[in-house]
Amino acid sequence: MKLSQSNIIIFRVMLFIALLTVMYLATSQIEFQIDIRQSDKLGHALTFHTLALFADFSFPNSNFDLSKISRLLSFGLLIEIIQFNLLYRIFSIIDLAADGFSLLIYRFSLPVFKHVLIFERRWT
Predict the structure, then answer these.
(1) CA 41 → CA 35, 54, 66, distances in Å?
(2) Please, which of 11, 88, 97, 99 could form a disulfide with 48 given CB 3.0 to 4.6 Å?
(3) Is the pLDDT of residue 37 over 60?
(4) % of the chain beyond a pLDDT of 90
(5) Among 15, 12, 2, CA closest to 72
(6) Any residues with CB less than 8 A from the CB of 44 and at least 6 apart, and which?
(7) Is the overall model pTM greater than 0.85, yes or no?
(8) 83-87: long-range contacts, CB 8 A cutoff, minimum separation 24
(9) Measuring CA to CA, which residue among 25, 43, 19 is closest to residue 88?
(10) pLDDT reported for residue 30
(11) Residues 60 and 10 sit within 8 Å (Cβ to Cβ)
(12) Judging by beta carbons within 10 Å of its beta carbon (0-12, 13-18, 19+), is residue 8 exposed, middle or buried?
């Protein structure tokens, strides 16, 4: 059973909200109570892995291929370019690499996801 149209709409809304939230958090001057230097790359990886899942499930009629990867990586690059122009943020190629790495992890974890009960409807 494939994803229903209502499920696809829900994933698209979740993707939209996630993109807005990431953009807001990446460009705002929010003070975090945790030492973000230690968890920054992990945060990038988890964020872009989640965005990959939302993007993949939002458009289930196409594979998670270079098209989806390049769009999400372009979003990451846009964030870095915006941060370059903010006095309280910096451009980091390592952040962009963490984004790309997490997208590749998502891509190569798809064979496992296809056998996980809550995800399998995406591919059946």
Answers:
(1) 12, 20, 22
(2) 99
(3) no
(4) 62
(5) 15
(6) 76, 95, 98, 99, 102
(7) yes
(8) 83/26, 83/27, 86/27
(9) 25
(10) 75
(11) no
(12) middle
